[in-house]
């Protein structure tokens, strides 16, 4: 009877030890899976969702505002109505939504995922450059308009920087019967363009930074050598 009881206790101990080992393995695996999930999530959502939504909203706003500015006067240049920057940002957001439809694979194991991520990164960089240019053009035009003296001549608004100089450049805004309303609306639209394009540029820059951070693991600070040091420490303990 005694040997049978000892066998039963030994078997129960071995089962308990096996269960403990399984639990330890699960607990070891859980932080890794959690880190992998956190690495491609942002605010509880998959990575590009928040950035794509912001880019879509800002791109639509910049595009609509650019077309409204073009409708004020037919003589406005393309650089003064930056709907092109809004269209680029909208295209970037659409690529971000396409990335959401692709199943996540760590280390870009699929060619489609790598291609879409690279396209999104490059288009975000292009959107950043376009928005910065739009801010520069809008700021330059706004500074010029603060120094204008305008007169309405034959259903067109003619503005000069220096009225005392006969050789001073004259800016003509066609299809504008009232110079006062034209200048006030253009000043408001230019300010809005500066603000919206600046925010869009910051969003595109942050999207590029997050993608770079996710790909290269924050400057390689100890990430590659940490497992080696951990295994060496375990070997020394043994």
TrEMBL record:
Residues 1-10, 30-39 have a biased composition (Basic and acidic residues). It is found in: Membrane. The chain crosses the membrane at residues 49-72, 84-106, 118-139, 190-212. The keyword Transmembrane helix applies. Keywords: Membrane, Transmembrane, Transmembrane helix. It comes from the Eukaryota. It is a multi-pass membrane protein. InterPro entries: CD20-like, Sarcospan. Residues 20-29 have a biased composition (Basic residues). This is SSPN protein. It comes from Fregata magnificens.
């Amino acid at each position: 009877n005694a040997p049978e009881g000892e066998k039963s206790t030994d078997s129960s101990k071995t089962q308990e030890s096996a269960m403990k080992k399984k639990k330890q393995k699960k607990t070891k695996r859980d932080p890794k899976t959690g880190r992998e999930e956190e690495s491609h999530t942002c605010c509880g959502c998959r990575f590009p969702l928040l950035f794509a939504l912001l880019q879509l909203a800002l791109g639509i706003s910049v595009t609509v505002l650019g077309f409204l500015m073009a409708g004020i006067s037919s003589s406005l240049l393309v650089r003064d109505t930056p709907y092109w920057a809004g269209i680029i940002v909208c295209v970037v957001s659409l690529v971000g939504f396409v990335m959401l439809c692709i199943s996540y694979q760590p280390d870009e194991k699929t060619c489609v995922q790598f291609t879409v991520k690279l396209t999104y990164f490059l288009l975000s960089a292009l959107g950043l450059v376009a928005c910065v240019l739009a801010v520069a053009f809008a700021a330059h035009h706004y500074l010029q308009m603060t120094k204008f003296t305008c007169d309405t001549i034959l259903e067109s608004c003619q503005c000069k920087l220096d009225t005392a100089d006969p050789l001073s450049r004259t800016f003509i805004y066609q299809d504008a019967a009232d110079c006062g309303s034209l200048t006030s609306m253009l000043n408001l639209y230019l300010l809005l363009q500066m603000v919206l394009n600046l925010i869009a540029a910051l969003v595109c820059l942050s999207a590029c930074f997050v993608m770079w951070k996710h790909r290269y693991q924050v400057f390689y600070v100890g990430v590659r050598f940490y497992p080696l040091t951990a295994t060496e420490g375990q070997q020394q303990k043994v």
